[in-house]
Amino acid sequence: MRFIFKTEYAQDIRLARHGGHWFWYGLLCAFLALAPLLLPEYWLAQLTFVLIYGIAGLGLMLLAGFTGQFSLGHAAFLGVGAYTQALLTGMGWPFFAALACAALLSAAAGIVVGLPALRVKGIYLAIATLAFGFIVEEVFARWTSVTGGNKGMFLQAPVVAGLAFDTSQSFYFLCLVIAVACTLAILNLLRAPTGRAFVAIRDSEISAQSMGVHLAWYKTLSFALSAALAGIAGALYGHKLQFITPEQFDIVQSIDLLLMIVIGGLGSVHGAFLGASFLIFMPQLIGLAKDYLPDSIGQSPGLQTFVYGAVLIAFVMFEPLGIYGRWLKVRAWLQLFPFYRAGMFKRQKSFQKSERLR
Fold it and tell me: Is the pTM of this model over 0.85?
């Protein structure tokens, strides 16, 4: 078992805490770099979707996992980013300029939601964001002169410095670079005072406020940053599909995003990508399992929804920390073996939050 003795503050905020991190993350980066050579084109496309949803998951994780503000309308921010990217690239804007505008416009939409949401929390905040999602979806469908309405809009392959990313391999590398950049940005933000303020708000708003954290500013900032990342993911999503319609950014998409971070592991950057992997690869596994199931079950139209619901219930009941939380327990078991003690990870009793004493 590894023991780390910290003698300076820089050790606590270091991205890689020890040599094992450098080895495993280096191995992961090597696999991702060689993925176009190792994987067929179909699975490479699925891995590209994992990267895109992972970026959206980072945004929602920042909002829900690290700030404690849940959103049921996050697909609207994906839609804002996708439609902004489609309009600007259609007008001849460079790819990265259009991507930056998509992120900024999505962030502005996040501020529009975040400011009124300062007075509500919990289920009421979820209802407010859900209403916002319905409104944005209706705007996409009705504003036909800009969005094309239900006919949708086409997007061309991104072009950067005269180089067209029109193949699965080239677009995968573009998404990989953007996903790595977004991940490093989130990791550095969480090490900074801003990220620590987000976590303080999540744990206890009263305690955070008593320590000088400006609740209104940091909550609004969290919404803006989360929406900006969703806008970037929406822009890449549109380029990958090359066709977008309002139905792609409905309540089902928002629920999928929330399901993704809950199953991946709330409060963990790893959980965003683990949840994205679950969201993308689970339908493939269900499709493979249908061949071995009776026709009455395998051909049922609600099989995928049933499996998603059952998995979500199982995680909420038996593993609230998600896939990443389960991995931490498995890793601790391997490190402590044979001295692992039963009940070591038994859930502790929860006490009332201080907010309830008001």
Answer: yes
